[in-house]
Design brief:
mainly beta; rod-shaped; single chain
């Protein structure tokens, strides 16, 4: 009896790693960093490794409506 294992038959191994951080307060509030490391090892070709660094910024464009009336209704 043979067990089907696609990752062994293709000879490809992928190793992803992701680390993320978002500043929650202070002058850099809303700035985020994400580092991704992806390594691929294939049976028939060379190893492949990739590093990515993302810098993001979160900004709320839908602000709550303010009451524009000056006094009581």
């Amino acid at each position: 009896m043979r067990t089907y294992r696609p990752h062994l038959q293709s000879g490809e191994t992928e190793r992803p790693a992701i680390v993320s951080y978002v500043v929650e307060s202070g002058p850099l509030k809303g700035i985020g960093l994400r580092w991704m490391n992806i390594g691929v090892d294939t049976k028939n070709s060379a190893k492949y490794e990739e590093n990515r660094l993302y810098v993001t910024y979160t900004y709320n464009i839908w602000r709550p409506r303010r009451n524009l009336r000056a006094g009581p209704v």
